[in-house]
Automatic annotation (TrEMBL):
It comes from the Eukaryota. InterPro entries: CYP11_CYP27_families, Cyt_P450, Cyt_P450_sf. Its cofactor is heme. SUPFAM superfamilies: Cytochrome P450. The lineage of its organism: Eukaryota, Metazoa, Ecdysozoa, Arthropoda, Hexapoda. This is Cytochrome P450. Belongs to the cytochrome P450 family. One of its GO terms (molecular function) is heme binding. Keywords: Heme, Iron, Metal-binding, Monooxygenase, Oxidoreductase. It comes from Cuerna arida.
Amino acid sequence: EVPGPPPLPLLGNSWRFIPLIGDYRIENIDQVCWRLHRRYGNIVKLAGLLGRPDMVFVFDADEIERVFRSEELMPHRPSMPSLNYYKHVLRKDFFGEDAGVIAVHGEQWYRFRSRVQQPMLQPRTAKLYIQPIEETAEAFVDRVRLIRNSDQEVPDDFLNEIHKWSLESIARVALDTRLGCLDDSSSLKAETQALIDAINTFFHNVGVLELKIPFWRVFNTPTWRKYIGALDTITNITMKHITATMERLQQQGNVECTAQSSLLERVLALEPDNPKLACILALDMTLVGVDTTSAAVASILYMLSIHPDKQQRLYAEVSEVLPPNT
């Protein structure tokens, strides 16, 4: 038996996320995890969430490794019902049988992953992005210098700036383009701003749809409409960039891979008549990459900020492995 908060009849544990009644706040999910860990230990089960499977939280690194190493060839991960519904019902006309790897499991997940894993996991492909990712990191540092105040402090919405850096980095890989997310707001392209807004809307609403009582399954709620609108925007803009790259390759009369081919070009070469494959991969990379990367970097930066002595230690360690003037 996995320990965890006991669910109530009918309401399960969803009541804990209801304002004024429950004491769990989706906007403070980190504090929820902290409380679960302190009270129930390294492995916690949150059962009885209406409209979705039970959740198991693993807070121990060794146990996390054990979970991943013990997974079967086609793991079953029935997560994110809202995204699953979007891919398999609302936009089945677009996704068809290629729903990607997020909110998908079993044979369908394995079939998609098998087609894209080779170009994604090749070290030579990763090496192509050292310079673009470094350029994006330098642009982010310049952006921090610009927005900090006279006390060397960044604004309250600094996490949004980290989201922009993360999105810009992922777009360089997944879309083979520079979006300009870190440019001054006055010079941002309308399409880039729309993509940033859509991703922020997605992350703002996904927790509500996943953890609170799923009224969206019955009613077309305002939260659900915003969520679907955001996903449509991300999908459409992603497909636009994929199509532009495909047309460029066709004009060049060459969709074959070379040593310098980007990840996007390699994926497009797998199935030249199916650009949706690259679009769905890019969409999944964006949905799971932006928030996770941003949260990790924000946590690291915060911990470094409150432990100045560790900053110098980190600088010394990094200086030992990086080339001079980097």
